[in-house]
Amino acid sequence: MMLIMLQLRDLPTPEVLQKFAERYPDADVTAIASFLNLLRVATELSLALDACLSKHDLLQGRWWVLILLMREERLSSTPSILAEKTGVTRATMTGLIDSLEQGGLVVRVFDKADRRSVIVKLTDAGQAKLDVVMPDYYRRLRQCMQGLDVTKREELNQILGLIQLGIPALI
Amino acid sequence: MMLIMLQLRDLPTPEVLQKFAERYPDADVTAIASFLNLLRVATELSLALDACLSKHDLLQGRWWVLILLMREERLSSTPSILAEKTGVTRATMTGLIDSLEQGGLVVRVFDKADRRSVIVKLTDAGQAKLDVVMPDYYRRLRQCMQGLDVTKREELNQILGLIQLGIPALI
DNA sequence: TCATTATAGTTAGCCTCCTAACTATGTCAA
DNA sequence: TTGACATAGTTAGGAGGCTAACTATAATGA
Fold first, then answer.
1. Are residues A117 and A63 in the same domain?
2. How many structural domains comprise chain B?
3. Same domain? A37 vs A73
4. What is the mean pLDDT of residues A107-131?
5. Contact yes or no for B36/A145 (Cβ under 8 A)
6. What is the CATH number of the domain that holds A84?
7. CB distance from B95 to chain A under 8 Å?
8. Are residues A76 and A122 in contact, defined by beta-carbon separation less than 8 angstroms?
């Protein structure tokens, strides 16, 4: 997962929103405020996650590939499947695998069954990397989210579900 | 505001989370789920916003600059201030202003008071562009958020505030 | 006063994403 | 069987971020 967005350090004040709402009557002031707030906090979270991962010489793209491989029984997958699961293009996945392979964290193996295909496999070094990164990430994330009790977490998930339903209307 | 993040199309199932939690005892399963959910929905929102803006030949960076200029009494600001408010570097802002100026939406004016500085001003064409984009954006956003009543919007803002407090612990 | 430091903006070069086009291989149906 | 289409992966080139270094101007203080 990788998120890049302007950091929106200057959210509109109520006065500014009001001024815009006068010129543009379709403006829904509380909708705008919540929407921008959501994007802003998510961006800061994403940047913080990258800062955490970069201490381990990873960013979200490569990190996520390692995690997806670790989830698999055989610790392996294909570039196409990994691209689909991470939501990047196959072209981008080629680059991610290139750099992971260069670092010795994964290997490419030819698939004897389908010679168009390549199998990407997590190496011992890749697993060892995760065994360092994940505890650090989990520890930090636990701290980050400790202000939210389980009820609030469920509330958040429910609200996010509602927003997600509306996304097609935005496009 | 501009956000880029992997789309995380394959959120961990409860079983996967459980498996990871066994190997990594620091894992807080509900914290992880909410965190990833937040990043995923925000990413999809950001992509949807870009899709909406790109119909008007804009993306979040240039769009945000136009909005910040419109907020100003004199419809103008400086690259440094705009960079600070959008959360991009001054180098990036140079490029954003370049392309806006090329499209005739802003102009650069030399500042007579401080000859190091440049004043960026929204043109009539820039204001006209906003007068097309903003109603479209506001209409779509209203629809997108219509599933959330005002109470839920406030709940969301409160939860986002709590998460934001935890962000320093993640870095 | 004038050397030092700070600030405004730009440029150069890198990174990671994208789309589009390409190669190689597999599949399917006339 | 073989021509058309589909699929897997890569490459090439572009967009928009970033950092670091550079130019020009302003501010500061010994």
1. yes
2. 2
3. no
4. 97
5. no
6. 1.10.10.10
7. no
8. yes
